[in-house]
Amino acid sequence: MTNELCLDGQWKLVYYPQGEWQIHHPDELSKLGLPSIHASVPGNVELDLVSSGLLPEPFLGTNISELRPYELYEWWYSLEFIAPPQMEGKKTELVFQGVDCIATYWLNGEELGSSDNMFIEVRLETTNSLLCHSVNKLFVRLRSPIIEAGLRSTDAICYGPLTNGEQLYVRKAAHSFGWDIMPRAVSAGIWRSVSLVAIEEHALNDLYFYTVSVEKNLSAAEIGLFYRVATDPAYFYHGLEIRVTGKSGASEFQICKPVLFNVGSLTISLKKPLLWWPNGYGEAHLYEVTTELLHQGRVLASRTEQIGVRQVHLFRTETTTMEAGGEFLFKVNHTSIMCKGSNWVPMDAFHSQDARRYETALQLFTETGCNIVRCWGGNVYEDHAFFDFCDSHGLMVWQDFAMACAVYPQTPEFRDAMRLEARSVVKKLRNHASLVLWCGDNECDEAYQWYGLPDPSMNQITRTLLPQVIQQYDPHRAYLPSSPYLSPEVIRSGNMNLAPERHLWGPRDYYKSSFYKTSTDHFISEIGYHGCPNLSSIQKFIEPDHLWPFNSKDEQWVAHATDVSGSQGHNATRIQLMANQIKELFGAIPDALEDFILASQISQAEAKKFFIETTRLKKWRKTGIIWWNMIDGWPQFSDAVVDYYYGKKLAFHYIQRSQVPVCIMIDEPENWHVRVAVGNDSRESAAGSYRIWDADSKETLMEGRFEVEANGTAELGKIPISHSNQQLFLLEWNLNGRTYGNHYLLGFPAFSLETYKGWLPQIAAISNDFRADEIGR
Fold first, then answer.
1. Confidence of residue 279 (pLDDT cuts 50, 70, 90)
2. Which residues form the Beta-mannosidase-like galactose-binding domain (predicted)?
């Protein structure tokens, strides 16, 4: 029987500057006879304008600026549909999974409701008398978020970036108002799917699975289930039961319990469970679990989902010092995890296109050996398909709530909006095994310091409201108030560097400067370095006349910096920064585009390799690094290691080598020597053979056998060096029948770009996982 009708596809769209017409009902709209265009659902209105030939390709040149006038428009979507006869006589709901963002809804001339949050699902009940089984007319009106933001109440404590303060007052992805990694594209649209759904008489409305405990020897585990059912209350006393059946490989369980009320809980004991592990530490086992509501043996309702059995703890201290120490450590199933991963930023400036990019983008994380992905707070909350991939591939997810780099309102209205949003998002995502941490926001604690405001502990959204929501709906998962979190102890010390978890941006100077080498943090959740996209990608968004010579003031280069306030804006300096980082490593800025691209990619690759390996070599003083970032959400010059068109930069390949579970690395010089160590980020000991040699002379510098304990580090020896030398050391090791490679760049800048070009084929040839002649192309 059909219980859902998908309403995705082609709709009609009417639009005009808000206020030009005073229209309050769809009947008034139709009387005016305004022209319409076709609109895609899911979609964004700007893409519909492009498809209709009314806007140019927005990602080419400076075309993104042509979207600016449409920020003040309102948009009317309309659709005619026929409800299936099977729904006749049933209660139904219109379900909008994502609407951006100030919306009012009508069905057959009657207003159903409104919404003002792009992040959460909207469910609108339709009465039997309203929904007809001939032709139904559905209208959705979207008003300007800019105009709406200007009407909302504010308080004096609010601060945000100068060019995008609107983001504080509407629940819309912060990056869309302009960011250093995304263009200003204040979009509108029905950006996720729409459906008409029959409300079943019997249903399992709420199912929350969680792991209660895992034995230290991993031989047993206990999981819990909270449930809420909808059914005839009279059934509670006449044979109503809940049955839970799970299977993963050879591990199975089943439990059946009476249901005496519409809410309840139960626990399930497992012997020899197949546990869920982060990538590199074991298999990401998932149980297929079917939950059934039974009445006297008859199945009234059923749901099937994938769950993971795993126990995750975040051990952290409020502060850290080199003398007294501190902690910021994830443990999964009693095992300390060395976290290696990347930040997840918007997949597209137009979020209706996100879903089609999920799988390819997430495969980049598995290719590079990541075991964690941080969902950054300036973005949207990703859908189930994203988390399903992370569940099945052992990618731990750190999820920020959608606030970034600002001091948000503390008004009752904003608190109510955030409570509704948090409850919706937490309940939606809490069954995913990959989700290991809720985080209050991105850099909002630091924003209090930027704007000279009092202690960020005054932020009642992250200190009171969000932890209350999590305690209520997901009490078995860790919460961090902000990233970085500035505890009262850190604030009292006056030294923000004492936070155990930090974002290491700083001057962005030479990647081996004291800023990077002397940080006291335990966990780095943001750190990056610029790298130019490949030539074939640049040619897709920079027009030929603007490609070269290099000019940090060129309007098209600056537009893709990203910059939100013209060539004099703060972010316009990112182009010059990229050139300066090239000059820092090679002593000069190349005079040809191809060499500029290659030099930039080498600079970025060496920097990110250094950041990762420095973290691993200081295990367990350092417990993780989430570098910035994997892939761009629009064509630009950035810290990403894969560009918007999926072009892999050199850094992608170096990271791939530096993040293998068992990796041989060379530390920085000390006492005329460099230390050689092997790191093992896995639950099994490892042994193999290795060789280290000089790239120019081919002289063997060290070789032999290595052994390293599970989840440990072993020193293999030391190689004598001279600080006056510039050398490339090549490393190769064999483990379980496979050959791995790495390299180490010794010496101080400036290096010769021509010399490095000669080294690059040798670096590539170690384990033949990339081709030197394809880098930068």
1. very high
2. 21-192
Reading the block at residue 662, the tokens are 């068992």
**pTM, 2 dp:** 0.96
Give the SS3 label for residue 752: coil
Strand pairing category for 372-375 and 339-344: parallel
Q: How many residues does the chain have?
A: 777
647 phi and psi angles, rounded to 5 deg: -75, 120
**In the Cβ-directed half-sphere of 52, how many Cα atoms lie within 13 Å?**
17
Type of residue at 433: A
Q: Where are the chain's structural domains?
A: 4-198, 203-307, 662-746
Average pLDDT of the segment spanning 705-732: 97
More confident residue, 241 or 575: 241
From CA 414, how far away is CA 408, in angstroms rounded?
A: 9
Structure tokens at 514: 């004291």
d(C-alpha 338, C-alpha 630), whole Å: 19
pLDDT, position 538: 97
Q: Is 240 in a helix, a strand, or coil?
A: strand
Q: Which CATH number fits domain 203-307: 3.40.50.150, 3.90.1150.10, 3.50.50.60, 2.60.40.10?
A: 2.60.40.10
User: Which ranges of 275-383 does DSSP label H, i.e. alpha helix?
Assistant: 354-367
Taking only the tens place, the pLDDT of each residue in 610-647 is: 999 999 999 999 999 999 999 999 999 999 999 999 99
| C-alpha distances in Å from residue 435, one per residue of 155, 185, 385 | 34, 29, 13
The span from the CA of 195 to the CA of 98, in Å, is 11
**pLDDT value for 1:** 45
Provide the b/e sequence for 565-579 (b: ≥16 CB within 10 Å).
eebebebbbbbbbbb
Using the predicted structure, report yes or no on whether residue 261 has a pLDDT greater than 60. yes
Question: Quick one: tokens of 764?
Answer: 């590539």
Q: Which two tokens stand for residue 382?
A: 């990703």
According to the model, what pLDDT value does residue 163 have?
Answer: 78
Q: Are 482 and 440 in contact (CB under 8 A)?
A: yes
Closest among 487, 513, 594 to 549, alpha carbons compared: 594
Res 693 pLDDT > 80: yes
Is residue 156 packed enough to be buried (19+ CB in 10 Å), middle (13-18) or exposed (0-12)?
Answer: exposed
Q: How far is CA 69 from CA 144, 146, 159, 185, 186, in A?
A: 11, 11, 25, 11, 10
In 3D space, the residue among 183, 192, 163, 187 whose CA is nearest the CA of residue 633 turns out to be: 183
Residue type, 761: P
Contact 328, 501 (CB under 8 A): yes
Mean pLDDT within 185-203: 95
Greatest alpha-carbon span in the chain: 86
Q: C-alpha distances in angstroms, 648 versus 640, 641, 729?
A: 9, 6, 24
Confidence tier at 265 by pLDDT (50, 70, 90): very high
**Rounded mean pLDDT, 53-57:** 97
**Crossing angle between the packed helical segments 650-658 and 593-617, to the nearest 10 degrees:** 20
- Cα separation, 249 vs 269, in Å, equals 17
Same CATH fold, 662-746 and 4-198?
no
Q: What is the pLDDT of residue 237?
A: 73
CATH architecture observed for domain 4-198:
Sandwich (2.60)
Q: How many CB atoms are located within 10 Å of the residue 351 CB?
A: 25
| Helices and strands of the chain, counted as H and E runs | 17, 37
Average pLDDT over residues 658-676: 97
Neighbours of 165 (CB within 10 A): 15
Q: Are 351 and 344 in contact (CB under 8 A)?
A: no
Structure-token match 């009314």, residue found: 54
**Beta strands per DSSP E along 59-116:** 73-81, 92-96, 99-100, 102-107, 110-115
CA distance 651 to 295: 59
| CATH top class, domain 662-746 | mainly beta
Q: Are 394 and 277 in contact (CB under 8 A)?
A: yes
